Amino acid sequence: MTAAALTDADPPSARPDVWDEQRLASLLADVGEAGLRDILRLFMADVPFLQSRLAAAIATGNEHEARSVLGLALDSAEALGLAALAAAVRTLRNDPLATGNPDILAQEAARIRFVPSLKHAS
Amino acid sequence: MSAKLSVLIVDDNRTNLALMDMLLRKLPGCVTQLQTDAHALLAGIDRLDYDIAVLACRLPQIDGITLASRLRDEPRLRHKPILLTADEPNQGMRGSAADAGIAEVLGKPINPVEFRARIQGLAHQRSPQADSASPWDEPAGAPPEVTAREEEYLNALVRVAGYREQESPLHSQRMARYCAILAHNLGLPEEFCRDLRHAAPLHDIGKAGLPDALLRKSGFLSPEERREMEEHTRIGHGMLQGARSRVFRMAAEIALTHHERWDGSGYPQRLKGEKIPLTGRIAAVADVFDALTSIKSYKTSWSIANAFTYLHDNAGEQFDPACVAAFESAREEIAEVMRAMPDPDDGTADAA
Known about the structure:
The complex is a heterodimer of chains A (about 120) and B (about 350).
Chain A (H helix, E strand, L loop, with lengths): L20 H39 L3 H18 L2 H12 L9 H7 L12
Helix pairs in contact in A: 1-2, 1-4, 2-3, 3-4
Chain B lengths: L4 E6 L3 H12 L4 E6 L2 H6 L8 E5 L7 H10 L8 E6 L3 H9 L4 E5 L3 H15 L17 H21 L6 H15 L4 H10 L12 H4 L7 H8 L1 H9 L5 H12 L20 H16 L10 H10 L7 H8 L2 H10 L12
Parallel strand pairs in B: 1-2, 1-3, 3-4, 4-5
Helix pairs in contact in B: 7-8, 7-13, 7-15, 7-16, 8-12, 11-12, 12-13, 13-14
């Protein structure tokens, strides 16, 4: 199995905590690599919108909106097995305005590479 | 019955929509209607039709439970089953969902196997031929000779697992039957029950990867030895994961999760509630019940009454209450399995 990044230029993420490997294995078995890539692309396309909504919510002190955006991000992260993103969002949700980092989604998303390097993905 | 199964999915999260769509499209004849906007859906309710609705509980303008009530207000849709997907559903939410006529509540992130099984179960309910094979059952996908060969491999693996274990050779077989009975009583599709019966005997296969000294040690385990013993779940998962076979994938899931506890104090991942896959929750009940009613090197066998009392007392803490209730309702069948496959009697059985 060759590692294939979702984006072309950057090397695959080597940080093991990006993915929940068990969830990843389950998704690969159930929707296949192509299906998982499609869903992941959909999520990655949504990230800039979620990011700008979150930044605006933080800038205007709109906690309800910030929580709503983070809820969506967490939902997606858990569905896709993006463990590190889910953990970051969960932390942020505890106090989204006081500790909120308006770039958190983009930063975490930048770490996501689709690396079907697990043996069972072959 | 119509030729297709039409599933309406309402979720404001496109990732969830896409995932559920892909999972359902694997079911033969299943078509999906995807909707992110509940108000737009209700605006077109006159033209709306589906066989099953899957609603997210958390929606931006109207919550899933209220949406379910609105859909059921429409006479044409009143009897269409609804499945609610929710983050960490609690008893209060389940009560509200039941009051709104919602048939099933499933925790997020959805477990693909459980999600499809629930949809298949609801499809059965809508069918007038609920007891017969349903066209919504996932097809076996393999010719009979391949399926037969798969069963041979499974049986060989079960023998390998049993060879090194100290368990009664009948433990895995009884436990598998209990799993299938429980799943059946939960209303899960026959195909799921069959798969479970084949997959469950491999729940402890990871013990084959533990050292003899640990497996055969008599007396108490030290904390370090206990941690090492607990690794059999991950080892078993590692042995089985990645297979294309549905049964092997289910077996991998059971191997990993059958020691999780409903209250989150189990191992290896300390999963809680519905975060534990349904297969693992079912296997936990069956495994413990058989352990209690079997003779072990360190204990006599418990009576069936005492074992059921133990399950009942630990529902909601160690076990999924729904699984315990389904198991309790099959008391006669369980007793029949015990009678049909008794352990060799060493005279120590609890006479209660």
